[in-house]
């Protein structure tokens, strides 16, 4: 009984839904868990920009109020400090479920908490979706493919994941979250959507979250060498954040459950990425080699034919066009940090 039409007041089984005020097109009320984080805050900007009401739930583990401060005076915006591992009661039309640390450094910091966030957090949000008849979108990850034996990866590939390794809390946590979403869909009729997101970059990434793009850009601005792990020949495909946000909204508004790969198929080795950073940010930048981390996937590249065909979505911004767009945000924050330290 969800209707994407904003004219419809028929939602949530009737009993728990909000009473519509006035006549005419109705705003959607949307929860974004993890909305104070990197991707979440850009998504919130888009939803507020198109006129919806947005409630962010975040425990500020890796998210920051600074990412949302420009919305604090907007009456259509609310921010709740809450951990999704605990239940919560709200009346909403849609749930974008992003809450979960995404960088390896953060998700390995407390692996048990990462699993609880993925499993109990997702369970609570699906329970909420079931109770109020809301549509639920899970932000899963390309990590469900593990160290893939199929290249590029299609959604039909089941993956090659180590269940007992250092990355398992995240990889297996997200795989379980996908399972939960499908079981609520099949068993309780919850309208779910599953996105498998590939490496994404842009303004508002944490400066020191250990991800390769944020590391290389911050290191170059600080005039430090870029740290290339292993031999630097491993590959990733990098997507600019606005392309991802467009894909998430297209998925939520469409009729297909998924899973859908959302990523930019442009594939780069870490050495090639370092060259691009050098080219677009500072030609004098240098690199240094460091040992790689355990279970690092050797290659990753999305096959996005399914999203192209069914969601009419594809990324628009290449790495060379996207990287310069995050530089001024990184420069400003690094400058503020240095001033704070009295440098
Ligand atoms: P992020 O770390 O910037 O944001 C995650 C947000 O979730 C933060 O604001 C954090 O405080 C919040 N959070 C974490 N645990 C929570 C909890 N228990 N309760 C409430 N809030 C909690 O990461 P991001 O890059 O914005 O990623 C957002 C989502 O997208 C994540 O689910 C991530 O797994 C997924 N994803 C991201 C990428 C990427 O490259 N950025 C790739 C694949 C998947
Ligand atoms: N839940 C929640 N908010 C709600 C409805 C449910 O946080 O509005 C939580 C609930 O506390 C439970 C989980 O979601 O831990 C799953 O709920 P469901 O009703 O599916 O299962 P049950 O409560 O029967 O275990
Ligand atoms: N990486 C690197 N230098 C860094 C950080 C990461 O060479 O300073 C490599 C890492 O070994 C991996 C790739 O970059 O092969 C992507 O790592 P990231 O943590 O950004 O994302 P993920 O491993 O989750 O794809």
Automatic annotation (TrEMBL):
Pathway where it operates: Nucleotide-sugar biosynthesis; UDP-alpha-D-xylose biosynthesis; UDP-alpha-D-xylose from UDP-alpha-D-glucuronate: step 1/1
A GO CC annotation given for this chain: Golgi cisterna membrane
GO BP term, example: UDP-D-xylose biosynthetic process
Keywords, sorted A to Z: Decarboxylase, Golgi apparatus, Lyase, Membrane, NAD, Signal-anchor, Transmembrane, Transmembrane helix
Membrane protein topology class: Single-pass type II membrane protein
Keyword Membrane: yes
Organism annotation: Brassica oleracea var. oleracea
The EC number(s) this enzyme carries: 4.1.1.35
Subcellular location: Golgi apparatus, Golgi stack membrane
Cofactor(s) needed for function: NAD(+)
Descriptive protein name: UDP-glucuronate decarboxylase
GO molecular function ontology, one term from the record: UDP-glucuronate decarboxylase activity
Span of domain NAD(P)-binding: 32-326
Biological role stated in the UniProt entry: Catalyzes the NAD-dependent decarboxylation of UDP-glucuronic acid to UDP-xylose. Necessary for the biosynthesis of the core tetrasaccharide in glycosaminoglycan biosynthesis.
Family: Belongs to the NAD(P)-dependent epimerase/dehydratase family. UDP-glucuronic acid decarboxylase subfamily.
């Amino acid at each position: 009984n969800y209707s994407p039409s904003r004219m419809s007041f028929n939602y949530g089984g009737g009993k728990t839904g909000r009473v519509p005020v006035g006549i005419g097109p109705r705003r959607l009320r949307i929860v974004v868990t993890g909305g104070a984080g990197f991707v979440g805050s850009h998504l919130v900007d888009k939803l507020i920009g198109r006129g919806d009401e947005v409630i962010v739930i975040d425990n500020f583990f890796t998210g920051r109020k600074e990412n949302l401060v420009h919305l604090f005076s907007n009456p259509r915006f609310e921010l709740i400090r809450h951990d999704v591992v605990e239940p919560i009661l709200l009346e909403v039309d849609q749930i974008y479920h992003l809450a979960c640390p995404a960088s390896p450094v953060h998700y390995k910091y407390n692996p048990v908490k990462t699993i609880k966030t993925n499993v109990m957090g997702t369970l609570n949000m699906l329970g909420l979706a079931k109770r109020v008849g809301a549509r639920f979108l899970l932000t899963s990850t390309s990590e469900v493919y593990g160290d893939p034996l199929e290249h590029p990866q299609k959604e039909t590939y089941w993956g090659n994941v180590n269940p007992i390794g250092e990355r398992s809390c995240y990889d297996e946590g997200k795989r379980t979250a996908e399972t939960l979403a499908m079981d609520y869909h099949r068993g309780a009729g919850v309208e779910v959507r599953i996105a498998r997101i590939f490496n994404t970059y842009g303004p508002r990434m944490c400066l020191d979250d250990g991800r390769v793009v944020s590391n290389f850009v911050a290191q170059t601005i600080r005039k430090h060498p870029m740290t290339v792990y292993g031999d630097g020949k491993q590959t990733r495909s990098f997507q600019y954040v606005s392309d991802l946000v467009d894909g998430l909204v297209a998925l939520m508004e469409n009729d297909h459950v998924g899973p859908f790969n959302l990523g930019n198929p442009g594939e780069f080795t870490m050495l090639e990425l370092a060259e691009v950073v050098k080219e677009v940010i500072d030609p004098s930048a240098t690199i240094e080699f460091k040992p790689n981390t355990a279970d690092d996937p050797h290659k990753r590249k999305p096959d996005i034919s399914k999203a192209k065909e069914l969601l009419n979505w594809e990324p628009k911004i290449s790495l060379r066009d996207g990287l310069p767009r995050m530089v001024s945000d990184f420069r400003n924050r690094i400058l503020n940090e240095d001033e704070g330290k009295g440098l």
